[in-house]
Amino acid sequence: MGSAVSSAARRDVRSDIMDAAERVFAGLGFDGATTRAIADEAKVNLGLIHYHFNSKEALFEQVVARRTAQVNGRRHDLLAGLLGDPKTATLESILDALMRPTIELSNEHGDAGQHYSRIIVQIASGTDDRSIQLTAENFNPIALEFIDALESHVPDLGRENAVWAYMNAISVGLFMIARTGRVAQLSDGLCDEGETEEAIARVVRYLAAGTRALVAPG
Q1: pTM check: above 0.85
Q2: I need a surface site. Which of 97, 145, 155, 167 has the fewest CB within 10 A?
């Protein structure tokens, strides 16, 4: 009896709920998910979700923010490290710092990385007010850091093209983390989007060429 009680006490119910919610939101989307389904997935009483998070909306926001903070923290640190040395602050290295954290998370952190990635693809491509607000709150500050870096380190790029270069990179990045399997299907197995370093290298080369093309004559 005492063992069962101490085991329950050690359980981090809040984290368990967030992990379960991440799985349910990834599979069903915000509208399709219910607090009942999340409670069942977490194996907790429904009332605990309302106790810890108040509402489905608040829970969704915290699920998004949890791993986004980790991703953007790494992006910030990688970028700051590059900008500290003019020799390392190349277009390719800036794009690598932008793309690497999300692709690594999607490829190397098992189901948790994939669940988070699916949620981010949902909100980043969403046109509803909730998706637009969550995208702005979670990603605009780090986006501006990279736009500033691109503008400063690509000769003659300018602010307008720096914004487009960032958005082009994010569009490609969303496809990479969606992991639909279409690349392998279209290549008849020749391409493997799960090969992290090769995937990052190809994407960076492609985006760097496109960014430089923005300032090419004509």
Answers
A1: yes
A2: 155
